[in-house]
Every structure is written in C-alpha cells, then in structure tokens.
C-alpha cells in the first residue's frame, strides 16, 4: 500500500497540477483559491521528488501529507482500475457525483457516464490500455443516481508498472455545472434581449460608446428594408443617406455625452418618425446607447384628422343654435360656408330636390362663391336634365368627387358667368329612398378626400334634418292650432304597460284634464276607459297588433274628470321600429256621444218596434187560432145541439119501445099460455105457424140485445158530442183549475180519426193535481202535438202519453212517437212561425209556434228530443200555480 501510494502520489500530483492549469487557461475566471491549490500541488510534487530517497519515516510523512491534500481537495480526485472500477475517491468527488464513497467504489466510471459522452471516453481509455497514450482531458457528463446530470471537466493520467503495464488511473474531476448554467443563462439572456428588441414597435437597437450597433431588431427590415444582422458592428452613417446619417451621429454623440433621454422627430421620404434615445450605463466600461424609432405618420395624420373632427363637431353642435337664431335661408348659407371652410373649398351651393326628383331649387349660394368665382346668379329653379356633372350624385344617389374637372370630356350645366372650376365635390342627402338635398363644393387647393366627403355628408344631413324639423314644427304648430280648435283630441301612447301618454293635444281640456296631468299619468289613460269596456279594448288592441295591422278603429266609453261618461271613436295608427316591434300608438279621438245616444235611441225604438211587431204577430196568430177554435166550437156546439134533440127523442122512443116490447112480450107469453089450454085447434095452429115463420124464439132473444146496443151507441154519440163541447169550451177564456188528463182524453177523442188507422196510443198517466190554466188553449197544444205525432208515423207506430210531477210546483206531459224524427238542421226552427216541413197545402207552420206561445203564456216551457229514424219526444213543463202577473194578462196582450 505504501508503495502504491507513493507511486500514485508521484503520478497524481503533476497530473492534478496540469488539470488545474488547463482549466484555468480555458476559464480564466477561477478565483485565487484555485491558483493557490495548483501551486500547492506543484510544491508537493517537488517536495516528494526530493524526498523519495529518504527513509521510511520520511515516506510515511509524505503519505500523511498526500492524504491531507487528497481528502481536503476542492476538486474531485480518484483512482480507477484497468477494468474501470473506482478504487479510491475523495470527499469532493462524492459531493460532485451526489453519492457516498462506499456506493461509488461498487461502480465503474463508465456506467455513470452520460450515454452520449461514453463512446468518446472509451476511445481515449482504450488508447491508454494499448499504451498509445498516458492520459487525456475532456468535458464529460455524469448521471447521478437521482437522474441529475453533472457537467464536469475530467483529466485522466495513467500510472504504469515497471513493465509498462497499466497499474491504475489517476483522475481529477472539476464540477462545471455552475459555469455551464451561467453560460446558458447568458445565451438565454442574449436571445431574450434579441426577441425583445425584435418585438418592439418600430426599430429598436443598442449601440456601444463608439456608436457601433450591438443589437438590432427586426423592425429595420419592416420599416427600412435593412437586414438587422448586417448592421451589427456598423455605424448609422454606413446604412443611411449622408444627411440623415450625419444627423443621427450628431444626436447619438450628444445624448451619450449628456446622459439624458431625448425624444427626436425626423422626417424623410414623406414619412414622419419619432425616436426615443437613452443611455444604458455599464459597470465595466463606457455606457451604451439604446434607441427606439417608430413611424408616426399615421398618428400625425390621425392627430390632424382629430383636430379636423373636433372643429367639425363644433360646427355640428353650433348648427341647431344658429337655426334658432337665423332665418332659414341665412342659416343654410351659414352652414354652407362652414362646410367650405372645413374642406378648404372656394365655392359652394345647396339645392333642394322636388318630390318627383326631376326639378332642382337653388336655396343657398355662399358669399365666397359669388365674390371669388361667379359674377351673376343663375335661375333658382331648373330641371335635372339641364344640370351638369355636379348633379351626378343626385342621379346615382351617392357622393361624386371630381379632382380634375378640366379633363372631364363633358362639362355642361354651369352658368356662363361661372368660371375656373378645377375640383368638385357633390354630396346628396337621401331620405325615404329619395334624394332630398344636394350640397356642392369646389376648387379645394388639393384633391378632395374621403374625410371631405364625410364632412360634407354630416353637415348636409344636419342641415336637412334641422330644416325639415323646423318646417315640420311649423306645420305641426299650424295643425295643432286647427286640432285645438276642433273637438278631435290627438294622443300618442307608448306601447308599454298601462299605455303611458307621451303626447296629447291641448283641447283634451274639454274633458276636464290637462296635457301635463295625462303625461304624468295622473290619471293613466287605461283608467280613463270605462271599466266595462277596458277588457274588450285591451283584447282588440292585442289581437290587431299581433296580426300586424297598421292601424285600427274602436268605439268605447271614456270617463271625464267630472265622472261623466262619453262615447269616443278611436282611430289609431301603429308605429313600429326597424325590428317590427311596436313603439307607439298614435290615436285621434272623436266625441260621438250625441251620435251614440241617437243610435241607442234608434236601437231601443227598433227593439221596441220589433217587440210590438212580435206581439202583434202573436196576437194575430192567436186571434186566427181563437177565431178558428171559436168557429170549431160554435160548429161543435151547433152539431151537439142538433144531435142532442134527435138523440134525445130517439133515446126516449127507444125507452118507450122497450116498454112496449116488454108488454108485447108479456102478451105473447099470455098467448103461449093459452096455447097450452084447450082451444080452437085451428087458431092454435096458426099461432104456432106464425111463431115458427118469424122465428119468434130468436126475436125474443135478439130484440133486447138490439135495444141494448142502440142505447150504448147513443151513449157513445152523446160522449163524443160532450168531448167536442168540452174541447172547444166556447166562451171559456178564464183561468180556472182543470184536469189535464180529462183534457188529454177529450183531445184524443177529437183527433182519434187521424190516429186510429196507424197508431197505437199508450197512456202512462201519473198522479197529477189540477192546475190553474186556460184548459182550452192547452187542449189546442195537445191536439197539435198528437196530430204531428200521427203525421210523423208513416205506416204503423206507437204514440206514448206520459204524465208526472216535476218537482214540487211543476207537472210534466210527454208525447212520444216512433215516427221518422226531425233532422238536425230543422230542429232549431220548428217553433218559428210559418216554418213547416210538410208538403204545400198540408200545413201552415203555425201549430208548434202557437203551442210554444201558449206554453210560454202559462210560464212553462216546451222541449224536444229527436233522433232521425227513431222518433221524437215533446216535453211540456207547466207550473201548478202560475204567477198572479201571468194570470192578470189576457191572451191578447201577453207578450
């Protein structure tokens, strides 16, 4: 070990010294400690050479000193074997590689080398193994256990045996990580600075004290077409024209000398530039000069435009006040002269265009025009066909700019007295799709620009707006005078909740309100509308507005301030915005109270007349029916009277005959008794022969049967006559209690001849009390319903009559048939007078109408249910005790 250490020390110390000196040469920025360590190594080497022949004690002392240097060195030191394993490492190397000595001694330096650096290291190592080299130095990256990459400078020296074979390698490792990071940081800072100046507005640069360019941004390419890389190391004079370059050099020298920042304006080639130059102090020498130059041409033009716009805005703001202070003609002349001044024009005029677009009217001609260019004024009215190029803007409905009037091929339309037109600007004012006004300016010293067109357009539009408003207001004042003198009230409502009033004419005072009150919403317009009409009015407005109608007309009632109700007709126009949304309702309200009252009176009179006509019609129908029934009753009474007499004496005679027959029979019986006694046999034989001839035994049995049938027939005739009399009730038109069942039966007997051949009548009578009624009229109702039921049955069918109580104070009579029924289109008309579905001559159409009137007269109602093909049911509901008012009315006056 002592021998190895001594040999290693003798080989290691000069190698270490060489490594340190080599590192210093490549990086002279090392501190004094590195220098001291290098000299210390050389001194140690000299001392070891001088003492290698000394004794063992001297060698041990050298070994001790070697370890003192090895273990306390600030650079990494190590010995490595021929198979690349670490044999000995000092603490500095462990610190550099981020591991302890025990871990490192179990590894090779090759496995810790970065894969990209390993091939080069192995080439040098193999050269040592072959004896071709005794050492090498190189930058090498090591990979720590945690993946961290360490940049180092590594020097390797071969220690050989006496036979020349490799004994071990002496290795010195210096950590270059901080130096590498600093170098990369410097490169990153330089690149960041370059990117910064590349992205500066305009051109950015840095010059040294000799005014040579150190850094130049890409703005030189964009602004001046110069490659900034070619400018590095050169002065400004070498890249710019002589006068500009000299001025830049003078400015740079002045600012470097004064150390003050300056903003310098320059102009060349029609462009404006602004340069900001400043001093950049340095710690290691003279200060540098920094500068930024930007093209401010657009800004200068914008500033001029801004000043122009400020002046133009001031003119536009002054125009309304001037319009109030000046007459219309003087106002337009003033505005035209302001447009001349803003556009630097020397002449100008304003024309109005008629609605047909074919006639021009000269309304303003500036004083400058007449003084400078024109000696006489032309006609104030002339057709468009006589206007020249200056009227092309009217024809094309867009501004016309002519900056070389003399070169135009056709130049008609100017007065002969007008001379020297060089440039022309003509701008139309278009409103509602038509040109309304034309403003023409000319002879600006330079070409007219878009800004001039915009200026003239704005002023022209404002002139037209003000003049139109003044004329509209004048017309409106005149119209309002007419409106206020009339009974018509004008309103404008906003299309929002509650319909707030925006405008109302002064004559609303006739209703007790002032315009200020209604505009303030005290009261709101919706509260002026009569409560009974408000909902209808709102719904109608909503429906018509939703339908997109341009206007509507309504009649409704308003409440005046004195709470008086008046009728108005509201004729409203709907105003919408461009999106189609409603913004206002413009209405004209006319008081139609007097007309409405007349209409109401007329309607009342008409209704009263209709009622009278209806009563007259009903009375006439009732009179006809009454006369008919009276005639039938009188006829029935006469027939009954005539029939009663013969029926009476026939009945009496039959009674007497019955007595006689009985007596006769008694006599015959006596004769028969005599026949049994002894008598003249001849007479007896004759009697027997006669009895046998006339079939006396049959006569004796049949004669009494004939008499009984005759009496029954006479009784039936008597009942028919009685029912006819009961049905007619001639002279009985008074209210009285009556049995409805009796009335139905009597009526059924009267119409039985109409029914008996094809109808089966079923009676389902309930328990009915007597009701207070006009029974003869109800019998008429029953007759009409029964006859109609019979007519509805075409072949064979059934008529069912039902009666029952309905509640506590009503009775119900139903007459149902199994006939053909009533079609749906006719069922709502069956009670109309003169309506009938029967063939001509078979019905008058009065039966059901009179029945309806009679039931109504009894404060009842008549209902019908019908199914075509299945039959109909008529239901009569009658009160048991009608109201006294109903009873007090006679049939002729009942409505």
- Evaluate the radius of gyration: 69 Å
CATH arch. level architecture of the largest domain: 2-Layer Sandwich
CATH topology name of the largest domain, in short, is: Beta-Lactamase
Structural class by sheet pairing and helices: alpha+beta
State which percent range the strand residues make up: 15-25%
CATH top level assignment of the largest domain? Alpha Beta
Low-confidence stretches: 1-5, 28-33, 372-378, 890-895
Strand order of the largest sheet: 13-12-11-16-15-14
N-end to C-end Cα span: 153 Å
Mean pLDDT: 78
Total helix count? 27
Task: Determine the CATH superfamily of the largest domain.
Answer: PAS domain
- Summed up, the domain count is 6
Largest sheet geometry: 6 strands, antiparallel
Q: What's the total count of β strands?
A: 28
Please bin the fraction of helical residues.
Answer: 40-55%
Oligomer: single chain
- The geometry reads as elongated
What does this structure look like?
The protein is an alpha+beta fold and 895 residues long. The protein folds into six domains: 2-175, Beta-Lactamase (2-Layer Sandwich), CATH 3.30.450.20; 183-295, 2-Layer Sandwich (Beta-Lactamase), CATH 3.30.450.20; 302-475, GAF domain (Beta-Lactamase, 2-Layer Sandwich), CATH 3.30.450.40; 486-591, Beta-Lactamase (2-Layer Sandwich), CATH 3.30.450; 598-719; 734-888, Histidine kinase-like ATPase, C-terminal domain (Heat Shock Protein 90). It is built from 27 helices and 28 strands. The strands form six sheets. The protein has a six-stranded antiparallel β-sheet. The chain starts with a helix and ends in a 7-residue tail after the last helix. Residues 1-5, 28-33, 372-378 and 890-895 have low confidence and may be disordered.
């Amino acid at each position: 070990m002592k021998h190895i250490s001594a040999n290693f020390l003798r080989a290691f110390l000069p190698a270490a010294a060489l490594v340190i000196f080599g590192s210093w040469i490549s990086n002279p920025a090392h501190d004094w400690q590195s220098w001291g360590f290098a000299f210390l190594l050389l001194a140690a080497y000299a001392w070891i050479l001088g003492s290698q022949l000394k004794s063992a004690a001297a060698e041990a002392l050298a070994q001790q000193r070697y370890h003192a240097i090895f273990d306390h060195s600030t650079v990494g030191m190590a010995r490595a074997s021929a198979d690349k394993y670490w044999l000995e490492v000092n603490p500095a190397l462990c610190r550099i590689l981020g591991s302890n000595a025990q871990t490192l001694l179990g590894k090779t330096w090759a496995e810790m080398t970065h894969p990209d650096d390993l091939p080069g290291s192995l080439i040098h190592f193999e050269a040592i193994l072959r004896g071709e080299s005794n050492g090498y130095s190189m930058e090498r990256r090591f990979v720590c256990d945690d993946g961290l990459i360490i940049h180092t400078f590594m020097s390797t020296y071969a220690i050989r045996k006496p036979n020349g074979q490799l004994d071990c390698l002496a290795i010195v490792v210096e950590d270059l990580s901080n130096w590498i990071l600093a170098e990369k940081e410097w490169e990153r800072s330089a690149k960041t600075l370059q990117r910064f100046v590349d992205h500066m507005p305009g051109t950015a640069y840095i010059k040294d004290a000799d005014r040579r360019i150190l850094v130049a941004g890409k703005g030189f390419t964009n602004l001046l077409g110069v490659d900034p890389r070619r400018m590095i190391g050169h002065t400004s004079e070498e890249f710019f024209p002589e006068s500009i370059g000299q001025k830049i050099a003078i400015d740079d020298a002045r600012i470097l000398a004064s150390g003050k920042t300056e903003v310098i304006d320059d102009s060349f080639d029609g462009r404006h530039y602004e340069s900001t130059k400043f001093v950049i102090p340095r710690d290691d020498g003279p200060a540098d000069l920094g500068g930024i130059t930007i093209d401010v041409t657009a800004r200068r033009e914008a500033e001029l435009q801004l000043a122009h716009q400020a002046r133009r805005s001031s003119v536009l703001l002054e125009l309304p006040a001037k319009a109030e202070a000046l007459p219309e003609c003087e106002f337009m002349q003033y505005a035209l002269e302001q447009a001349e001044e803003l556009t630097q024009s020397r002449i100008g005029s304003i024309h109005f265009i008629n609605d047909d677009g074919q006639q021009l009217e000269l309304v303003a001609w500036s004083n400058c025009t007449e003084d400078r260019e024109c000696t006489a004024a032309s006609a104030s009215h002339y057709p468009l066909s006589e206007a020249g190029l200056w009227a092309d803007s009217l024809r094309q409905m867009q501004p016309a700019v002519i900056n070389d009037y003399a070169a135009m091929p056709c130049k008609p339309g100017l007065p002969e007295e007008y001379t020297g037109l060089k440039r022309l600007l003509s701008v139309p004012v278009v409103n509602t799709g038509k040109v309304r006004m034309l403003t023409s300016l000319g002879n600006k010293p330079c070409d007219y620009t878009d800004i001039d067109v915009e200026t003239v357009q704005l002023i022209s539009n404002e002139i037209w707006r003000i003049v139109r408003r003044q004329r509209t207001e004048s017309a409106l004042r005149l119209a309002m005078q007419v409106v206020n003198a009339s009974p018509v009230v004008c309103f404008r409502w906003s299309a929002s909740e509650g319909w707030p009033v925006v405008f109302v004419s002064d004559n609303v005072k006739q209703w007790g309100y002032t315009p200020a009150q209604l505009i303030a919403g005290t009261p709101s317009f919706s509260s002026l509308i009569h409560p009974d009409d408000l909902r209808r009015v709102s719904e109608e407005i909503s429906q018509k507005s939703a339908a997109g109608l341009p206007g509507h007309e309504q009649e409704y009632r308003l409440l005046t301030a004195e709470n008086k109700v008046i009728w108005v007709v509201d004729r409203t126009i709907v105003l919408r915005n461009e999106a189609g949304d409603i913004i206002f309702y413009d209405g004209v309200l006319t008081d139609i109270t007097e007309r409405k009252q007349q209409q109401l009176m007329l309607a009342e009179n008409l209704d009263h007349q209709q009622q009278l006509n209806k009563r007259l019609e009903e009375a006439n129908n009732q009179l006809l029916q009454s006369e008919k029934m009276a005639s039938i009753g009188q006829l029935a009474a006469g027939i009954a009277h005539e029939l009663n007499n013969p029926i009476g004496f026939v009945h009496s005679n039959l009674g007497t005959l019955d007595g006689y027959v009985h007596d006769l029979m008694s006599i015959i019986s006596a004769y028969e008794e005599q026949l049994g006694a002894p008598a003249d046999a001849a007479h007896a034989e004759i009697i027997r022969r006669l009895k046998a001839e006339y079939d006396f035994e049959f006569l004796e049995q049949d004669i009494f049967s004939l008499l009984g049938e005759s009496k029954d027939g006479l009784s039936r005739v008597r009942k028919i006559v009685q029912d006819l009399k009961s049905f007619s009730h001639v002279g009985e038109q008074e209210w009285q209690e009556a049995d409805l069942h009796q009335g139905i039966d009597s009526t059924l007997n009267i119409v039985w001849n109409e029914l008996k051949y094809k109808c089966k009548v079923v009676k389902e009578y309930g328990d009915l009390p007597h009701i207070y009624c006009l029974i003869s009229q109800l019998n008429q109702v029953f007759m009409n319903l029964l006859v109609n039921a019979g007519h509805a049955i075409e072949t064979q069918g059934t008529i069912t009559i039902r009666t029952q109580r309905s509640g506590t104070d009503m009775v119900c009579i139903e007459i149902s048939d199994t006939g053909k029924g009533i079609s749906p289109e006719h069922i709502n008309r069956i009670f109309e007078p003169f309506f009938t579905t029967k063939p001509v001559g078979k019905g008058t159409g009065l039966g059901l109408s009179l029945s309806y009137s009679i039931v109504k007269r009894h404060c009842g109602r008549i209902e019908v249910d019908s199914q075509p093909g299945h039959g109909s049911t008529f239901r009569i509901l009658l009160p048991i005790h009608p109201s006294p008012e109903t009873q007090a009315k006679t049939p002729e006056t009942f409505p």
